[in-house]
Each structure stands twice: as C-alpha cells, then as structure tokens.
Amino acid sequence: MIRISPSFILGGAAVLTLLIGGTALSAQDKQTKDKYTLKVPGGLAFSEFKGYESWQVISVSHGGRLAVILGNPAMIEALESGAYGNGKPYPDGAKMAKIHWTVKKNEAEPGQPEVPDTLHDVDFMVKDSQRFADSGGWGYAEFEYDTDEQAYRPGTEADQPPQSNDAKCGFACHTVVASHDYVFTVYGKR
User: Fold this and answer.
1) How far apart are CA 50 and CA 36, in angstroms?
2) Taking the model in full, what pTM does it have?
C-alpha cells in the first residue's frame, strides 16, 4: 500500500493552483501584449497610447453608446490653457482616447440610469504635425473590441459605424471642427 502524506497533497495542490493561476495570468498578459502589437495602416499603433486607461477625463458622451474621452498630460495642459476656445493649435504630442461601451440600465439605482455594459471599441487621436501633415496634423485609429475573443482589432468598413482603418480615418469627420484644430471634445468647467 502506498502512503501519501498530507503535506505532499497540500504541496501538490499548491503547485496545481500556481499552474492554473499562471495560465490565467499568461492569457491575460498575452491579451495585453497582443493589443500593443496592433497597428492601423499609416503607422498609428495601439502601443503609442500605452497607459491611456489612467489618463485624466476630458469629457463624456452618450449617443447610443456611453463614452469617456481621456487626455494625456500634454492634452490636459493645452485644454486647461484654453486650447479649445483660443483658436491656437494643440501641441504635438497631445493625445486623446475615447472608450465606448454598450449601455445597460442599473436596476439597483433609483431612476435606473444607463451605465457601461460591454466594451465596444477604443478610438485614439495624436497630434503630430510632421507625421500627419495631410490630415490637419492629427493621426487617428479605431480598434474594435471582440467580447467573445476578448481581443482588439483595427476597425473596418464593415463595422457600425464604418471605419476606414488607416491613420487618417477620422479626418473627414473632423473637418467640421477645423476652427478648433479638428477636436470635437469640449473640456467642461471643473
């Protein structure tokens, strides 16, 4: 008869837990790394916006989807200096991210306001007058989020709304705000 000590069983369970946990962490790390390898034609890469999740909020919007618009420190500094209303261009290096979610009602809260549900996509803008001289100095990118795959991909013409998936994809839309250096988002009073 083979005797297995309780410490061997506990040790084996600990190793198994580490292996399973390590696999989950590896999958999460892989997804994070994978999004930073994505690029739209024209060269704008997801990796250029690493850390966007912790940028300061510029504004929110709601047009069928709930969105939060974030800005890197250069963008926030320009906005605090009145960039949107003073007619001056934003500085090179200013970046914005717009995260879209589908919405759901918060059944637990009075009035049942709409709150974020599933992630839909992330849009990026970067001011680089040299690189994007023919699109108002701005580069654009849109990355759809596939909830089944839990991964991002560049937007396409088949998406709703359709996206030209190159670094100039947003320029045609943004020409209506050329007088505000192609930026729609207003920095609300705080």
Assistant:
1) 8
2) 0.77
Q: Do 95 and 175 fall into the same domain?
A: yes
Supply the DSSP symbol for 48. G
CA pair distance 15, 4, nearest whole angstrom: 16
Measured between alpha carbons, how far is 130 from 49 in angstroms, rounded to an integer?
Answer: 18
**Cα distance between the two ends of the chain:** 75
The answer to whether residue 92 scores a pLDDT higher than 60 is yes
Same domain, 81 and 12: no
Q: Predicted confidence band at 168 (pLDDT cuts at 50, 70, 90)?
A: low
Residue 40 lies in a domain: no
- The single-letter code of the amino acid at 169 is C
Residues near 184 by beta carbon (within 8 Å), at least 6 away in sequence: 174, 177
Q: Which runs of E-coded beta strand occur in 29-150?
A: 56-62, 66-71, 95-105, 114-127, 138-146
Average pLDDT, integer, range 154-174: 70
Choose among 90, 43, 103, 121: nearest CA to 187: 90
Q: What is the pLDDT of residue 170?
A: 73
Q: How far apart are CA 183 and CA 136, in angstroms?
A: 10
